[in-house]
Amino acid sequence: MKTVWNKAAPWLSAIVIGCSGAAGAAEMIITSEIPLATNPSPYIQQFIEEVGKRTDGAIQGKYFPASQLYNDRDGLAALGTGAVHMVWPVSSRLEQFDPRVGVASLPFALTTEEMTNPCFAKGFTEMISGYLEPRGMQVLGFLRTADLIFLMKNRDIQKVEDLKGQKVRVIGGQIMLDAMKSVQASPVSMSASEMSAALSQGAIDGAMTSPAGWADVLGSTAKYATLPPGMGLATSAITVDKLWLDSLPEAQRKAIVDTVADISARQWQETVAKDRELIDQMVAKGGHYRVMAPEEVEKLKARFVAAGEGFRNKQAATLAQLEKVRKECIHDGK
Question: What is the mean pLDDT of residues 164-171?
Fold first, then answer.
């Protein structure tokens, strides 16, 4: 009986919350495994507040950070049950529903320049959403998580060879797991909320994560940070229960979609500056930060791209679709 209750508790909690809102108001339950102070949590809070204003309180948002209700994987699985209406996970979490979404996590693939191009961002969002809509999900946009860095407890990663034998938590699905194996590291997939304990206890030697992950999660336990430019642009996919969204009055749907668009446009610029601040903050506390040398980045890129050949071969049509969006929006100057 205890096991059954534990499994049911998050769903029942959300239902109780949903019944406690203002009369006539639509509940909007959002869950995340990210701590309250860490990107994108502050933007989720802004989103809830702005949607409430734009709908005159007709939509009442509730946010559960740090896996209080679900981690991102379970939260996505709960979309469509009524327990959760939105999840803003790292994009790789969506690969469990359609492997084509892995294109968003390919190393050395997407750039900030592309994702801040309105035409490209719209085309890419519609492309990824189209893969997931048969599963009852809709992607409304993408936020910038970070340009990924290696954070290590005891090893300063200066060369590709320095990753050999290291147990590294990765952000990403099978694609990034394969990439890290290509440099003879031992990749470990785990949620952000598990990283700190794992690093302290020696279960991992380091993590592929963000500057916010350094400042807000791992702290001084991770002494060394290395940025390989271009390696990984991590994004968060703003994912909604499509049936729930479609059931709302048109004005409320528009408020949600427009608010996502407004927040996304400025979030990309703000988080670049914020990451620089967080890195400076950690260096001031005794941390070590470096940018990997260009020749080493090229070695890493060669290994990672080769490791992704299986995906590229299997998902040739997906990559062709991405290139079409890139050509229309970037190369043709839209």
Answer: 94
Measure the CA–CA gap between 153 and 137, rounded to whole angstroms: 38
What does the pLDDT look like over 292-333, one tens digit per residue? Answer: 999 999 999 999 999 999 999 999 999 999 999 999 999 876
Distance CA 334, CA 331 (A): 8
CA 155 distance to own-chain centroid: 26
In this prediction, residue 190 carries a pLDDT of 87
Which domains are present in the chain?
A: 2-144+235-274 (3.40.190.170), 149-232+276-331 (3.40.190.170)
Decide: 255 and 74 in contact? Cβ < 8 Å.
Answer: no
Show the 3-state SS of 202-236.
CCCCEEEECHHHHHHHHHHHCCEEEECCCCCEEEE
Q: Could you tell me which residues come within 8 angstroms of residue 308 by beta carbon, excluding any fewer than 6 positions away?
A: 106, 107, 175, 178, 179
Helix, strand, coil % over all residues of the chain, rounded to 5: 55, 20, 25
What six digits make up the tokens of 58? Answer: 């007709």
What does pTM read for this prediction? 0.83
